[in-house]
Amino acid sequence: MIKFEYIISSLRVRLRFISLLFMLLVVFQISSQNSSISSIHNFKVRGFHIDLRTQVMTLPALKAFAKELSEFGINTIVMEWEATFPYKNNATIANKFSYSRHDVKEFIDYCGTLGIDVIPLQQCFGHVDYILQHDRYAHLREDTKDPSQVCPLKTDDNIALFTDLITDISAMHNSKYIHLGGDETRLLGHCNDCKSKVQASGKSKLFVDYLKEMCKIVISLGKTPVIWADIILKYPESASELPKNVVFVDWNYGWSVDFFGKKEKISNSDIVFWGAPSIRSSPDNIYLTQWKKHFSNINEFIPFARKSEYEGVIMTSWSTSGQYSFIYDELWEVQKGYPIRNVYPLSGFRILVAAYAESLKQLTPLNPDSFILSYGTTRFGLTVNESNSLLELLKTPQELIKNGKEESTDKALFAGHENATIRILEKERDVYEVKNAFVNLQSKMNSIQPKFNKTEFEHLRLMLDLRVYYLEKKCLEAEFQSQSFDGKNAIILLQQTDKLIAKSKIITKRFVTLNKGYLPNIELLEITKLMDEKLMVIRSVLKRKVETAF
Length: 550
Hints:
Layout: H1 2-41, E1 45-51, H2 59-71, E2 76-80, H3 101-113, E3 117-120, H4 129-132, E4 141-143, E5 146-150, H5 155-171, E6 177-179, H6 192-201, H7 203-220, E7 224-228, H8 230-234, E8 247-251, E9 272-276, E10 278-280, H9 291-307, E11 312-317, E12 324-329, E13 333-339, H10 350-360, H11 368-379, H12 384-395, E14 400-402, E15 405-407, H13 409-413, H14 431-446, H15 454-481, H16 490-515, H17 521-531, H18 533-547
Parallel strand pairs: 1-2, 1-11, 2-3, 6-7, 7-8, 8-9, 9-11, 10-11
Antiparallel strand pairs: 4-5, 12-13, 14-15
């Protein structure tokens, strides 16, 4: 009996030992898995790009947005201050919306309390219209008529200017990074001297030799240079000559991953990559938001960035294309510049910011449909049917209208790029058919009554109403530009124009009310004025036709 009890006791001890060993193995395995997940799951840099080129957020709006970003788990903001930065020695650059140095310090300090690193973006090559439009800097232009890009061979003058600008902006920021821009240098090799260098050494050498000088400025300040990756991917031959600690940001807004070029061709293996999708990009404008494209971009590119072991992700958000139309005086002296397009303010895009933040928290790709439906019910308190209507809106493609027809924006965007995956419209529709489809969506959206966050929802409703208004204008334009227009029907078109102008006043009032305090009042008025510029021109012609018909 004693022996039997001893055997039972011994077995129990062994079972406990085996159970304990099993538990330790499980804990170790889970810990190992969590460690692996953590290394894949958490990007070192989880960032958001704020573009102040044409839409200058007020300081309270900036701080409120930064707070929300921190709540979403964002730890980095890339600030493209452009002409809103209060430069000391180059005060000519600052525009009428520029912040004070106290404002900049207050914002950066506030972000510091939120655990957010603020990286300044100082363009130094292309996209410097805001600098070169001034007579003071016009001699640096690559093209006399185009103030968008400096000539990279005017080395001494460029170094002098950008040493001052970069030193100034660096002194105001605590980040160890400075973003130098460097994207879309469309005039690379344009002037005669640059052409000669390209013929002798190639575009990559021309680009890299200049960027090396800009990187030296950043490194001399004890900082790490960051540049957009498109040009070096397109012309990678001299990439190995760049500093070893440079960070390249691979921006991709929905095209193939080797759209600019294959990363394998860059021989400098020490280069660090970050990725950059977008929630506002071409052809988005005040009347058009390609929701479906942006959700797909998040769904596809974040997992790609993880798989590619990118150290960070920066969500970009462009208020404009960065291209401008200028009014010139003699000798190509710039009088005034206008952005080619204006996008709806960032105030209307929280759902995409939230989708981006959610995609950073999960290993699997974000499911846009599930996310939108869940967002509708939890964020707005919508019914299932109402959430489905919201989903329908955000999945419906929005395209530009040209000559009364729906234009596939992908075709225009990717023209001439052999690596592009071009989306062709399944069916070419005329403007009337497109308008009717969106009027139907408008009816569904107008029936929705959100229970929570009503102001946010009103932005979405207004963006759809702007879309319908745009399509109605395009219907009028199609009539005005048609071969059947001979002036006899001018009075009918004039009446339609006046109805649209009346509708525009109501929409404008809603736009200003919803964005009051987000953008300066004067900027809100400037944006709304541009909405009706073409319509007012058509009206003046129609009015004259009616007056001279009798």
